[in-house]
Each structure stands twice: as structure tokens, then as C-alpha cells.
Here is the input.
Amino acid sequence: MNVMGVRSLGSYDLLEPVGEGATSIVHRAVDRFERVVAVKEPRRELAGDPTIRRRLGREAQAMARVRSPYVAEVYDACLAGERPFIVTEYVAGVPLRDLVARFGPMRGETLSVFAGRLAQGLAAIHGAGVLHRDLKPGNVMVLGGSPKIIDFGIAQEASADQATQPGVLTGTPGYVAPELIDGGRSTAASDVFSWAATVAFAATGRAPFGAGSLHGVCFRVLRGAADLDGVPEPVLSLLGFALRRDPATRPSAAWLAARLTLGEPRRAS
Here is the structure.
């Protein structure tokens, strides 16, 4: 216990929890240089689980390979001891999910700039040989109109073996590519599909494949029944390319970023 009741983890003073999932908790914290950071640790009851520790290690390794103003940076990691943790850049923004719920969909140039920068961030991830595998509105922070991709909890190296279990869906329904629903491998093209679904949400305020049962959402993904009503050009055409059923025909994140920068949504090759 530190002064004034502030808890510590390693050399970091934990100020308050700012995120919580099924397996981990994220704290806003301060390092020894008085820099505000984010510290992620497994839940206490899971801290000794070797699988959870390996996953945390993979997350730190994946983030360390990526350099982009649109991707959260990793600063430190400690995978030994009773309480393993990783330390990342603290993004003082709002999750896209909450931003759209509070202020409504993005429009015009704001949407195009956001979509282009999100594509640039994803291109940097892929350029580092990493797959994010869970790009969605809850994993994109927004500050000043710019995105910052966070949470590499299930990220992998693109070349890594992917052992999939029958009937187990990795990622978030409605933002997962159809080939993954069919039991296929994650690829950069799968992340591109997730980018498109996330941008569609930013543009409409709706999950593009609807809500409801897992079966219903997955059925609409497999049918290609995306609700893109209200998405303006040029973003609409690009989403059409990125949501193609066949991953081999989807454009790369770098191609999408270039088209949004140029404002020229030409036919993807």
C-alpha cells in the first residue's frame, strides 16, 4: 500500500480501474516519472493461470512490434511474480462505442478522416506482421476525432499457428469475418472485414449485422446482409470492398488508407 491509500503494482501507482473484462482489469496509473499510463493485469483468481500469462505475454510482444500514432504503445511488461502485468500508453479518449451512443454517428469529413486513420493504424499492425483479431467499436478509443486501436488480448503474429476448436468463435460476433465463422484462419483480410464493420457502426450508430441471437448475427454475416443505410460516399464504396464474402478479394488496410487519403474509392484489385 502506498501513501494516501494508493495501491502499487511494481513501480506503478494504481489510481483507478478504467476497464474490466472477463479475464483482466485495466487501471489508470502513474509511473515513477509521473507519466499517466494504463496497467493491465489478470483478475486475481486467474493470475496464476499459465494460459492467461502466455496470452498476456503475446499481447505485450504484439504491441511492441507496432509503431503508429493510431495504435496504443506498450511501455513495459512483467510476466513473473504473483501479479503479472503489462503497461501501455494511456489513451484519454472515449471508446467509439460510447462516443457514438452519446453524440450520434460521424458525418462528412469527420467520418472519412476517422476511417482513413483507423485503416492506417491497421495497416501498421499488419506491416509489423501482427493480426489484431478483435477490432470493434469497444477497442477503438477516439480523441479529437482520431482513433487509437487498443486491446491486443487475442492478437497473434500473422505467421503463428492457429489452433481452432470446432464451434468456438474467436472475436466479437457482428465484427468477425465470415471465414472465421466457418472455422477458417484469421488473416489480415479478416481484420479488414472487422475494420469495415467498425466504420459502418461509426457512420450509422448501428451494428451492421444487427443484434439479437448469436445464430442470427452470424447468419447475416454469412449472407453478407450488412445494413449500410445512411453511410455516405466515398466511405460506402470502400466498405463494400472490405465486406466482400471472399477474403481473397478484399483490399488491404494500406489500400483503404490510401483511397481515403486521396478521396478516390477506385475498384480494388
